[in-house]
Amino acid sequence: MRGIVGYGAYVPYNRLQRSKITEALGAGGGKGTRAVAGYDEDATSMAVEASRNLMRSVDVVPDSVYFATATPPYLDKTNATVIHAALHLPSHVFAGDVGGSTRSVNAALRAALEGQRPTLIAAADVRSGRPSSADESVLGDAAVAWLIGGDDDGPVVAEWLGGASQTAEFLDRWRLPEWNYSRVWEERFGEHVYLPLVAEAASAAFAATGLVPSDVDVAIITGLHTRAVRGAARAAGIEGVRIADDLSDTVGNTGSSHAGLILASVLDGAESGQTIMVIHLADGCDVGFYRTTDAIAGYTSSNPVADQIANGNDGLDYAAFLTWRGFLDREPPRRPDPEGPAAPPSYRSENWKYAFFGSKDRSSGAIHLPPQRVSVKGGAVDEMELVPMADVQATVATFTIDRLAYSLSPPTIAVVIDFDGGGRFSCELADADTVKIGDRVQMTFRRMMTAKGIHNYFWKAKPVTA
User: Fold this and answer.
1) Which domains, ranges and CATH numbers included, belong to the chain?
2) Fewest C-beta atoms under 10 Å: which of 229, 405, 412, 452?
3) Which residues of the chain fall short of a pLDDT of 70?
């Protein structure tokens, strides 16, 4: 049996009320909210958070890591290696990008499902549209991660039953590398092309698996062509099947990660023996079937999708959203521009910078952040062992509000935190408008800033949510 051994999702804290777009521009907008990656987040940092949620629920070291995104932070450099480093995976674990379009995630899934080794797949996008456009309103930002494997890799919670694909070359949605938004061809043309592909892929998938529409308990239908997605159930012959909530009212369409995000939401509440059909429209149509196993009852999602949606903040200001997306060029703080990190020290401190390991004195037990050679207790030299701190919670010991620091979202909240079990650290606080001494926090992987074309990834604290 091969299929999904584990999964994790990440929905950013910030939400934009679509009505704020209409209030500001007199056009666009709509009802509900869309998820928004923070000014200190990108596709890679969100993929790290989704992968961390996954790895808290499984105890398997993957053989490979694939990162699928249509909005890569780097070109000519592998983004998946950041995920690899943040998870502190062994160097023999392969890490590679599968990108260029939202269909790329299906390429990674197909390779993993047809393979023999445990494979971690992460998908994430930061979706943008020009101000007042439909894309600006209906799209959203999120990430998802799966561990694909067999029975030897741990209990399979959703068995892969099979599927089918149809491919066509046509102009639907495209973006040049220097653009921060996509262009879309006239919708009736896309619907005219997509729906026959859906019908053919669904028919072939049913034939390959021996299933019939009445066997399907829930269907997931997604794609960036809204009109074609609306007609896909009829084209696939599943009009009587329950269609899963596509999260459009609260999160928006998250592109590369969207089918996986909905699947994670469905699996969060699934029972054993349920058949799930996934239909994904992107430069063709991919149809696949999963069936939950008895192991789903014992699977604990470290951060269910519904909880992340409920814990979001819909108070994001539209001007801040435009600033974060680069559509509004505002006066920066009167401070020198930040310097980008240098390659040699970043490489030498990989365990600290990416995986957030401290050092622990073997004799006194004192924990040092960042790692040190000399202990603050007793002065022992080179008697340290590395200790992982990324999943250890902490308490705010003191804080300051800095209105002059360089930031796309001033003011900056700087906190000094004491970790459970020892260790004190000074860092920024993310995803919070207020703070007080005694607040409980956890660590989160973020993009601190970008300077000279170099992304400086590191860790911040964020409030612990219920």
Assistant:
1) 2-325 (3.40.47.10), 343-355+390-463 (2.40.50)
2) 452
3) 334, 466
